[in-house]
Amino acid sequence: MYCFEGVEEDLEGGPKCLCQQQEEVCAKSVINSCGDCIRTGPFCSWCKQLNFTKPGEQEAVRCDTKAQLVKKGCNIFEIIAPENNKTTIKDVPLSTLSSQQEPVQMSPQHVSLKLRPGLPETFTVSFSRAEGYPVDLYYLMDLSYSMKDDLNNVKGLGQDLFAALKKITKDATIGFGAFVDKTVLPYTNTNKEKLLKPCDENDQQCQAAFGYRHVLSLTSSQDDFKEKVSSQFISGNLDSPEGSLDAMMQATVCEKIIGWRNNSTRLLVLATDAGFHMAGDGKLAGILDPNDEQCHLENNLYTKSNEMIHFILFFSQLLQKLSSKVTLTQDVLPDNIRVAYKPNCANPKQEGSNKGVCDNVRVGEKISFDVTVTADSCMDKEKSFIISPLGVKDRLNVTISTSCECQCNDPTQEKHAHCNNQGRINCGICSCLDGFVGQLCNCSIKDKDEQSLRASCRRHNGTECEGRGDCVCGRCNCHTTEKGSSYYGNYCECDDEHCEKFQNKQCAGNGQCKCGKCICNKNFQGSVCQCSGSTEGCQTENNSVCYGRGTCTCNQCECKEGYQPPHCQTCLGCPDPCQTKLNCIECLQFNSGPFQKNCSSACVNVSHTTVEKFTISSKECRQKDSEGCWITFKLEQLLGEDNYRAEILKQKDCPEPPDVTAIIGGSIAGVAFIGILLLMLIKLLIYMKDLKEYKKFENEKKKSRWAEADNPLFQNATTTVANPTFTGE
């Protein structure tokens, strides 16, 4: 039972708590053990009772809500359901007066929680502001030149703060510090004379530029405070934003120098008329080191102002508000931990889910907060966080651990009779010894390879028994479904509960689910039995259904490949029947062609008639047969894919045979003529070549120059002989 703050009001006008019962649901996923069950959800419980599961039933049925487990027959004392546990380690009562050394304003101070993931735990934190509780107030004043006109008013504001403190508590201290800006460009003029006197020349009361200066430690002396504040003078810088964040950081971390007390409420009041520098502004001056959150005051002056970037923090606190408003919140939470607050007071306020706020709380008034802590997941080790009121020293340490394991108090026997003396009990489940498997360790694998046995329970090397059964000695023992029926099949792959639905009804309510497929009742069809058996929309002109070339599904034709809806009459992608049926036409009409010997069997799907004139309106086919004659015919497709009626013209058109003698004579004459032409061409080529060579010779001869001299070795071939007896007569 959980309560939530409602909009109704009770008789006294306060918010009324409306309670509603949250339904307990166990959303199971993959469950193999008690630990898996407990981690699944905050309302999941585990039945460790022996023999709770039926033979072949998966052990995951042991995981459910308490109510469901009891309904299934589990003894209430055999149910494991870890609950949250809260232990208060330290709870010092609240103080009424601050006269004691350490007044207690919040209780308890230390709580230990052991949480079940997802199950919230609520505890109450009480608070009462002790009368006269010590308050430390540190006053930070902006002394940049823009504050010149307001300086006197600001000095007076400090006096008013001290007076207000005295009205709230008798134990109050006040301190004082001042700031301007970093003394580097571009924040401040770094000229030596301007650093010493950054104000106008007419301003005589002007102090040197500085970042932050601590002036007065926390004191209860009003005169000391008044003197220090009144003696302050204006300084100056260049830009509008100031170094207020540097000042607030040093005032916070320099506890000893400032004088902060351990048992007081600490207040930091900032008086300025300008904004502050962001961390990125440091790049303008070449300052890149982040603030180290350490104290760097020497002679009350901040020495690291020009070396570290501004630490972004924001303070805006009004004293009167802090004295009457109580805000309870926490520091950084561990991962996967959620905290919610519900204030119980006269004036609760909503300022976010991670804090509880009560306004107008009087001194000594006791209020409380309901703190709800939830762990979203299991944690390996113990973690903690701090809850505290803003501005108050009191702390509540919350330690958290998670309860994710089952304490089943199992029997100690390693060989338990329930497990056939071959295993031990682990939260109601048998954990078998080596060499034995099965729900009750009743399967001995001996020398067999257990992996081989388990492989025989996997279809297509998939999940063992499809995740719907247990592999026992190499065979699947199928589990029961959530509705009580059983999975079936060699690999438990079938069930009768998961068929396709139509209008949120399995098999449209017009069939039965068998192994994941719908078996339709009579007069119903479709993948989900969503259609009636009517074929009116599929009827053709000749009273056939889809011309026998498709099936009528949901009163529409589903045509075979190539055939076109709506009635599968034509086929755009099919071969031309004029060509595919030519051999049948030739053998049926003229008893010739490739099918001449087996025409009756090869052409059983073609009927024909011989006509002088066509009566079929389809296109005319004119094809050449095996003898080279032209056959003219028409085809009409009958019901079915390959049934035809043919009309064939009685006569085929055969061309006259060629004149063989003329062909032979012409061929011989042609060959002779071509031969003569070739010889003449060759002769011409030879003549042209010789002529070219002769002309070349003549040209070379003309270019020659012969020497005209006698060769001494030359002898004339002619010999003259004189006859001495010849007288010439």
Global geometry: flat
Order of strands in the sheet with most strands: 6-8-22-21-16-19-18
**N-to-C terminal Cα separation, in Å?**
183 Å
Share of β-strand residues: 25-35%
Which secondary-structure class do the elements indicate?
alpha+beta
Task: Give a brief description.
It is built from 13 helices and 40 strands.
What this model shows, in words?
The chain is an alpha+beta fold and 729 residues long. The protein is built from 13 helices and 40 strands. The strands form 14 sheets. It has a seven-stranded mixed beta sheet. Helix 3 (151-168) runs antiparallel to helix 5. The protein is flat and about 180 Å long. The N and C termini lie far apart (183 Å). Mean pLDDT is 82; it is low at 1-21, 310-316 and 318-322. Disulfide bonds join 26-406, 34-44, 37-74, 47-63, 199-206, 254-295, 345-358, 378-621, 404-408, 427-465, 432-441, 443-457, 471-476, 473-507, 478-492, 494-499, 513-518, 515-546, 520-529, 531-538, 552-557, 554-599, 559-568, 571-574, 578-587, 584-654, 603-629.
Produce the secondary structure layout.
Elements lengths: L1 E8 L5 E6 L13 H7 L4 E3 L15 E2 L1 H6 L7 E2 L4 E6 L15 E2 L2 E6 L5 E8 L6 E8 L8 H18 L3 E8 L12 H5 L15 E8 L2 H9 L13 H10 L1 H4 L6 E7 L25 E2 L2 E2 L16 H6 L1 E5 L6 E8 L3 E2 L5 E4 L7 E10 L7 E7 L6 E7 L20 E4 L2 E4 L3 E2 L5 E2 L5 H6 L13 E4 L2 E4 L22 E2 L2 E2 L4 E4 L2 E4 L3 E2 L5 E2 L17 E4 L2 E4 L17 H4 L1 H9 L8 H4 L3 E6 L8 E5 L5 E8 L6 E6 L10 H43 L27
Parallel strand pairs: 8-22, 10-11, 10-13, 37-40
Antiparallel strand pairs: 1-2, 3-4, 3-5, 6-8, 7-9, 9-20, 11-12, 14-15, 16-19, 16-21, 17-20, 18-19, 21-22, 23-24, 25-26, 27-28, 29-30, 31-32, 33-34, 35-36, 38-39, 39-40
Helix pairs in contact: 3-5
